[in-house]
């Protein structure tokens, strides 16, 4: 069943949604609604060219990475040891989200339009979203060559998108994030959707009920 949202802040029980995870349409992208959504593992995902209002998803099988289970391949270890790139947190959120958007903007079903960019930028300015940047140092200054961004609530990180302008830059950002979380008590990275890229790095499925217990841990 798909529910129609209104101006009130609420979401239906995800167990009552569609098999693909779609649970509701409508509402807005306000910070309060987004925070309520992520608290229950719900996220907006829709084609900004074809949808007049947000679509909200909550798959009941969650594809996640536990920070201490991140898989670092031999080739990635070699790349890290070369110290060719520098990783940072929250140094260029706008650059990261706009690169993520531009790389997919012409694709059919592209979802990272101006409304989404504004919503997550507002979240960032309120301390509820963050970015990881990958920089390539050069004589003319550091160049942003990869990164990722997402929402942070409690000890969990809810990944939204990533990009690479050079090979493996997004993998480097994810490894940097996972290692930081593992060292500082972070519990879970929500990958939202399964990809071979993320599975190769240690992502796996857990049930929605187990997922909720983890993200609600104090």
Question: Key features?
Answer:
218 residues, alpha+beta, 4-stranded mixed beta sheet, 11 strands, 31% helix, globular
Notes on the protein architecture:
The protein is of the alpha+beta class and about 220 residues long. The chain is built from seven helices and eleven strands. The strands form two sheets. It has a seven-stranded mixed beta sheet, with helices on both faces. A four-stranded mixed beta sheet has the order 1-2-4-3, covered by helices on one side. The longest helix is centred in the last third of the chain and has 15 residues. The two termini are about 30 Å apart.
In brief:
With 218 residues, the protein is of the alpha+beta class. It contains seven helices and eleven strands. The longest helix has 15 residues, at 169-183.
Q: What average pLDDT do the residues reach?
A: 95
Secondary structure tally, helices:
7
Q: Taking Cα atoms only, what radius of gyration do you get, to the nearest Å?
A: 17 Å
Count of strand segments: 11
The helical percent reads 25-40%
Instruction: Find the structural class using helix and strand composition.
Output: alpha+beta
Strand arrangement, largest sheet? 6-7-8-9-10-5-11
Element pattern in H and E: EEHEEEHEHHEEEHEHEH
Low-confidence stretches: none
Roughly what fraction of the amino acids lie in strands? 25-35%
The major sheet is characterized as: 7 strands, mixed
């Amino acid at each position: 069943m798909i529910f129609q949202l209104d101006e009130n802040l609420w979401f239906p029980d995800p167990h009552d949604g569609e098999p693909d995870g779609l649970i509701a349409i409508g509402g807005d992208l306000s910070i309060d609604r987004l925070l309520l959504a992520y608290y229950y593992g719900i996220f907006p995902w829709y084609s900004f060219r074809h949808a007049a209002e947000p679509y909200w998803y909550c798959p009941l099988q969650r594809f996640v990475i536990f920070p201490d289970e991140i898989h670092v391949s031999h080739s990635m270890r070699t790349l890290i040891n070369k110290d060719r790139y520098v990783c940072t947190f929250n140094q260029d959120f706008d650059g990261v989200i706009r690169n993520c958007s531009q790389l997919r903007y012409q694709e059919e079903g592209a979802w990272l339009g101006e409304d989404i960019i504004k919503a997550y930028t507002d979240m960032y300015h309120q301390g509820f979203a963050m970015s990881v940047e990958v920089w390539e140092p050069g004589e003319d200054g550091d160049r942003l060559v990869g990164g990722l961004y997402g929402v942070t609530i409690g000890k969990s990180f809810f990944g939204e998108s990533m990009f690479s302008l050079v090979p493996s830059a997004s993998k480097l950002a994810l490894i940097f994030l996972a290692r930081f979380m593992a060292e500082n008590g972070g519990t879970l990275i929500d990958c939202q959707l399964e990809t071979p890229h993320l599975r190769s790095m240690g992502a796996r499925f857990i049930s929605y009920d187990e997922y909720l217990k983890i993200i609600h841990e104090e």
